[in-house]
Amino acid sequence: MAMMSRRNLLLSAAAVGAAGQIGWSSKQAHAEVTRPARASGLLQDGVQLTWLEGGAPRQLAGGSTWGVAWPKGTVPKEQAFALRTAAGQQVPVQTWATAYWPDGSLKWTAHAIGPEVPPAEQYVLTAGAPAAPVTAVTVKDGRNEVEVDTGVIRCRIPKKGDQLVSSIRRGDTEIARGGELVCLRQDDPGDDEGGSGKTEKFTGRTGKVTVEQSGPVRAVVKIEGEHRHGNRSWLPFTVRLYFYAGGDGIRAVHSFVYDGDANEDFIRGLGIRFEVPMRDELYNRHVRFAGRGDGVLSEAVRGITGLRRDPGAAVRQAQVAGQATPPVETWDTRVSSRLHLIPAFGDYSLRQLSADGFQIRKRTKAGHSWIPVDAGGQASGLGYVGSPSGGFAFGMRNFWQLHPTQLDIRGAAGEKAEVTVWLWSPEAGPMDLRFYHDGLGQDTYAEQLEGLEITYEDYEPGFGTPYGIARTTELMFWALEATPAAARVAELAAAVRTPPLVVAPPAHLHAAGVFGDWVPLDRSSPAKALIEDRLDLLFDYHSKQVDQRSWYGFWDYGDIMHSYDEDRHVWRYDVGGYAWDNSELSTDLWLWYHYLRTGRAEAFRFAEAMTRHTGEVDVYHLGEWRDLGTRHGVQHWGDSAKQARISNAGYRRFLYFLTADERIGDLLHDLVDSDKAFLVLDPLRKLRTEPYEPDPHALLVGTGTDWSGLALAWLTEWERGGDPVAKEKLLNSMRTIAAMPNGFVRGSGLYDIDDGTFRPDETAVSVGSLSAVFGLVEVCSELIGLTGDEAFTRAWLQYCRLYNGTAEEQRAETGQSFGSQNLRQAHSRLTAYAAVKLGDDDLAARAWREFDTGHAGYPKNHTFESVRIEGSKVLKPVEEANLSTNASAQYGLAAIQCLALIGDKR
To answer: Which positions fall inside the PcRGLX/YetA-like N-terminal RIFT barrel domain (predicted)?
Structure first.
């Protein structure tokens, strides 16, 4: 097969897949499909679904979309689904397929409900015809624009030009218009006191609009383009707008890629802006900001409370409540005759420049002083401007966590207000993405390897570039028929902070056989309970460190630190390769498996934030290193080791299948061609003694960290029903790895990028301690379960048996000892896997000994408790424990998989 780019094909497949119409993509695949059984007892009885945070949410942000897994061969691909409350009331639902088993049966389905659903704590998903919404969401895909009608609001989306959204109407009333993306670029960082930086305003320019879903419950419109000023275009963006039947809200998912020069392209502000027509009297124009929790600031453009003269209790109460005041003729004339003398405050601003504090200010208009209103800790990220005849609410998820952010209202005293949600506040100073040091004289590979020995940073000139990194932000907009009551504002804010999500229970997900070797939480014996307690302690400690150490910020939120500095009582945030974790040793996997087992909302939200971060910030989406991730370091993009082990699709697929998130789906599609990165960047360049020219038919690719990343991307594409080449490469690579002498024990092979085959290189045995800890264990388990490939199974079991085996056992089978290997506790789960597959109780006992010994991890007698450090030793009180992120992640994965595989042998 000739080597070719398939990215355009994949983007098309993504759009089709969102509509639930993709099947197998080759005649060969169709020929392998066997007819699955009709709706089984599982579907007849129904799957019990609940809300992630429990109870029934006060408000859906727009609607809710979630995923459900199905056991192999039980649900045919054309199956229809119905949803009802536990009390039996039918709920309109829209369903589409997101993954298939190799026999053609459904593996994952996605389901969507709108905001007008019966409030219930539990729902039941069954086979059957879905109930139809009272008014379906409809989409008109015209030549020049797309119009979406939810039955409550109508939104017009131009296919070209500077407007993201041209208008949002509710009935005959235009609530908002002229939605646009705004970027302020500055040509220097403003380091000196002169403040001589030049600022330019760029506006988002739409290049392509795609309708990905068109109802009846959910519609999705994807908008792609770049920011433009004059002759320059940069910062490519993707914005998806989500609409739900019967809803007055629009969910927006905004993603952009940084493609500038970090030394001269400084983002001063980045946001999304709308105009809101102002129709009512100044005293009937209202502004709302949500504070922390249920707190709400309620203001009017022209306030009539607190005056020297009283307009009347009914008037005051109406204004505070956001209702139309009684006719001005009924007011006390001492007020009504002097309204023109009461200042009208048309501009409001809420800025959250750190995770610890926000400030609200207002002014009458430009050219006059700002007046401080109030301040607090962590704002919810919701604002509103409007009147009793309609208004616009706008919000940003993770508002304070992704600081510096800002909500602005301008000109509310005029004919139109302008509202801006700033993803990067223009008052925070320019975004500085330059590398953090001058290289320290590390101009040669030898010097760089020396630097690795002291700070653990793999530095190389020019490699610390942010060119190609990305960030995704979630927003909400509501076109409201009137100013909402304060309690309603609080409900909207809660929905922005934590969008309600429907979930299937751990028992059902486990019964479906997805994601390999894990079982739901089990405390049925003291030995199991001890491990479960430790897993909880590990999760709680690391999750609480986020707040204690303030691991927040636009580029940082979602990641955690790698290693701890006991002397300073801080994580090593400034020490080379010991700082940000960047998915090192599969922290992402540990958190997702912890959620799968426990169903804990905190675990899901922690893993969700990490997936958003690591899939965007830690991976290159443009440029020569596209599809590669960056090793852990002081800056997420700073280390010179650009590797597939970090961009690993295995870290993203949990969130995709559990939520059907289209942006995550894009990232997964992109990685299908990540093997091409081996043509442009030699991972062994600093160790080679001879010139190297990559051969596309004989690339030296590792069968551990390299292949696991490739295989997980191919597997995900195959099960989603996408590019058939992904399936071909996956199966070819499995077959040829197994056919090489010593299989996985070789450590690498000569890879052909055209068809995915391996052939032996010169090395007979090369076993590294990191090979299996970046998703290899998980993908091999899934692939063996999917394919039953006997040769591949034997090759993998050999690796599993021998890694922690004796030198004599290793030499007897492979010809040489593996040497002194690290991470033996982490590899206890490989021993456990071999024990189960081979029915070997001695291996099972060995696996538990390896786990309890805790080599490079936590031994059985390890102290998992934390201690509080306070006073002058630290800047602020913190919890400290003898734990590291790498050890916690691998202990967690080893414990979870050993319990699943040989828990009965404990």
So the answer is: 46-127
Residue 118 DSSP SS3: coil
Question: pLDDT tens, 528-572?
Answer: 999 999 999 999 999 999 999 999 999 999 999 999 999 999 999
463 vs 642: CA distance, rounded Å = 9
pLDDT tens per residue across span 394-417 = 999 999 999 999 999 999 999 999
pLDDT of residue 28: 29
pLDDT beyond 70 at 39 = no
Number of other CB atoms surrounding residue 875 within 10 Å = 8
Q: Find the helix packing angle between 776-787 and 828-838, rounded to 10°.
A: 20
Is it the case that residue 659 has pLDDT exceeding 90? yes
* CATH class, 503-687+710-905 region: mainly alpha
Q: What angle do CA 130, 133, 136 make, to 5 degrees?
A: 115
Q: Would you list the domain boundaries of the chain?
A: 7-127, 138-276, 278-434+479-497, 503-687+710-905
pLDDT tens for residues 429-440?
Answer: 999 999 999 999
Question: How many other CB atoms sit within 10 Å of the CB of residue 819?
Answer: 12
What 3 state SS string does 382-402 have? EEEEEECCEEEEEEECCCCCC
Give the β-pairing of 165-170 and 94-100.
Answer: unpaired
**Average model confidence (pLDDT) for the chain?**
94
- pLDDT computed for residue 289 by the predictor: 98
Give the pairing of strands 502-503 and 564-565: unpaired
The residue behind tokens 């599993």 is 800
C-alpha 56, offset from chain centre: 24
CA distance 595 to 885: 17
- Using alpha carbons, select from 406, 371, 390 the residue that is nearest to residue 289: 406
What DSSP character marks residue 484? P
Rounded CA-CA distance 653/614 in Å is 13
